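Researcher: I'm preparing a figure for a lab meeting and need a structural model of a single chain. I don't have an experimental structure, so a prediction will have to do for now. The sequence is pasted below. Please return the structure as tokens so I can convert it later.
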Amino acid sequence: MEQLGIEPKLLVAQLVNFSIILFVLTKLLYKPILSILEKRKKQIEEGLQLTEKMKAEEIQMEEKKERLLEQARKDSHAIIEEGKKQAIEEEKEIIAHAHRDADEVMEKAKKEIEHLKEQMEKQMKKQTIETAILMAKRLLERSLDSARKREISDKNIKELESFARSN
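Model: Understood. Here is the structure written out token by token.
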């Protein structure tokens, strides 16, 4: 080996030095680095698991949100439909009330017209009777003597007055 330029003492010393350095590096650096890497690997795995869990929760929350939104849409449509039904019912009620009011006004107007008609008929009867009395007076004054005129006149006047009072 000496012919190759390798000295056995030096080779043994280098092997011992390498073994010591390897032992020291293994104990002081390699194992702590491996434990740090193992811890980091566990943290990454936990992070990935947490990420997966969070994604699953996010999907569940999204599904829950969609269900709530759908329910809210259904509820809002139901409320709108109920509002429309109430509006239609109120419209019908208002129209019916307006018809009743119009009928009442018409009935009141008919009664008022009937009352005015009756008053006009009474007034016309009264005027007709008064005119008839006046005409009878004038007719009798022309055709009869004064005593007889008076007697017939008074009799007719009393009859007409009693007739006028009775109507």
